[in-house]
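Hi V.,

Quick status before I head out on leave. The structure for the redesign project is tokenized and pasted below; the design run finished overnight.
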């Protein structure tokens, strides 16, 4: 019984979090002495699809259907579940991304499967059990969760499993599925970009700022730093509550959870509710004038200093580096 991985694309390209999920699914397939099939939905080039073999996929099912061009939660879940049935896969892996978090429980229901979202480890199969470590309480703790049902769905937290390159190429096959009208009750008619900026939920670099910035008029340097780094901008809750920034930028327990490779926190104290949304960031850089700020405890790199002095210097250094 092969393992199935859903390889989500962003405008026709796969991100690093997908290569992590493919590598992770490959390791599960090896544990079970079986093969790994990936499924991709939407417009992705054959070369891009075949490259999933580099991370361990033996085969890629390509679903290219006009009705499925844009993400539709229920319809995508049906297609993934159909692919699992066709392949006889009892384990389905997804990335615990913004859309993966919506898909995983729907796929689990369709397959009568047990679900682990926010997985951070490979399954421990000692004694014939299937136990996976996952994040709990908004990332404040870990739980060891056992799946006892035959079918299993696992959503892997980005940045918790390293990309492993096997160097192979996957065989790409077209996969067509009859879509049901009932799967299109909620339809995505059009994507209207409110901004050309990088989207926060799946951003690889995030520049985030808090109340230490004093007021909305000081966000110019945050925008400039983010633009130079190709990053999304984010903020703490009080900042969006005060209307300094839009609510769509609010990160944390009551906001968006992000998993970037780099999270730069500027003038944010590091309250537990904020950390809940950023704990799976790979590298955390903190800029704060208070050496006692709790954020420094979780930082990989810390700069104790005034944001109004440090950030312009950082911008200047990046500009010089790029010149
Ligand atoms: P502050 O706590 O005021 O910290 C400002 C920081 O800026 C300080 O550390 C200060 O030293 C530093 N600073 C000041 N001036 C400068 C300067 N010139 N240069 C550099 N540093 C400077 N918060 C969230 O962010 N997200 C959530 O999802 C969230 N959910 C919550 C849910 C609940 C139920 C509750 C009760 C609270 C929640 N909060 C959340 C609020 C959270 O507890 C904190 O109050 C909030 O995160 C603090 O925001 P802040 O760090 O921007 O501001």
């Amino acid at each position: 019984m092969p393992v199935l991985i859903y390889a989500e694309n962003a405008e026709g390209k796969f991100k690093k979090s997908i290569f992590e999920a493919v590598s992770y699914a490959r390791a599960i397939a090896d544990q079970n002495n079986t093969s790994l099939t990936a499924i991709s939905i939407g417009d992705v080039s054959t070369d891009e699809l075949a490259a999933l073999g580099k991370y361990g996929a033996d085969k890629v099912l390509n679903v290219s259907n006009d009705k499925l061009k844009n993400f539709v939660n229920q319809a995508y879940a049906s297609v993934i579940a159909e692919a699992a049935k066709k392949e006889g896969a009892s384990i389905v892996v997804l990335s615990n991304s913004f859309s993966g978090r919506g898909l995983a429980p729907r796929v689990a229901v369709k397959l009568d499967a047990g679900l682990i979202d926010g997985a951070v480890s490979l399954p421990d199969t000692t004694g014939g059990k299937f136990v996976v470590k996952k994040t709990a309480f908004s990332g404040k703790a870990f739980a060891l969760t056992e799946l006892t049902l035959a079918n299993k769905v696992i959503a892997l937290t980005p940045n918790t499993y390293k990309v492993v390159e096997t160097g192979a190429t996957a065989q790409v096959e077209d996969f067509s599925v009859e879509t049901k009208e009932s799967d299109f009750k909620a339809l995505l008619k059009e994507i209207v970009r409110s901004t050309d900026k990088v989207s926060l939920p799946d951003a690889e670099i995030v520049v985030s700022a808090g109340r230490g910035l004093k007021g909305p008029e000081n966000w110019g340097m945050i925008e400039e730093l983010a633009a130079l780094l190709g990053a999304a901008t984010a903020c703490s809750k009080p900042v969006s509550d005060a209307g300094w920034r839009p609510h769509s930028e609010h990160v944390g327990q009551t906001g968006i959870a992000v998993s970037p490779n780099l999270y730069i926190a500027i003038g944010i104290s590091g309250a537990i509710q904020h950390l809940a949304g950023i704990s799976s960031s790979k590298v955390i850089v903190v800029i704060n004038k208070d050496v006692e700020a709790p954020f420094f405890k979780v930082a990989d790199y810390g700069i104790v200093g005034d944001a109004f002095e440090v950030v312009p210097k950082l911008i200047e250094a990046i500009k010089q580096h790029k010149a």
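Above is the designed sequence. The CA atoms of residues 22 and 55 lie 6 Å apart.

G. will cover questions while I'm gone.

Best,
W.
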